[in-house]
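Model it.
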Amino acid sequence: MAATLLRIYPENPEMRKILTVVESLRNGGLVIYPTDTVYGIGCDINNPKAIEKICQLKGIPVKENNLSFICYDLSHISEYAKISTETFKVMKKALPGPFTFILNASSKVPKVLNIQKKFVGIRIPDNNIPRTIVKELGNPIITTSIRDDDEVIEYSTDPELIYEKFKDKVDYIIDGGYGNNIASTVVDCSNDLFEVVREGLGDISVYV
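Modeled.
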């Protein structure tokens, strides 16, 4: 069965559509959505089978996944990561924004992912669609970028092209307008040094 394409406006996400997506996530569905950077694919963090499906789509072993979490706000983060006062201050200034912060995982992460993980990537994108989904779901969603098979075009930005490619692999695809083609900046904060692991859309030096 082909995925449902939903048009949702980031400025004022329609709650009826958001709740439809949330119900799908709770039932183990996979959803593609816009962020403040590239389009992402995600599932409910509490659904191991859905996480397995994402890993299969990405072609990575479940035990080796480096999938990140999308959280609604900073209050979510303390459940899943150990965070120092200094790191918290920087994240508070930088988020919501185009960053993925690598933090030391809390003891809860291995329990929800069913694998041993010392670190966890945390995102709070500056886009109301994924954040509203997470807020209504009541817990983070696992997320990873939608990559394009074309070596020249690294990330697909057109929701209709994304739909054509993924309509048989996911349950919902949210059209939130054209996406960006630059991914988030990945910052390793596991030792409070704010080391940039991957240059992306965000400039962490502004906040450190």
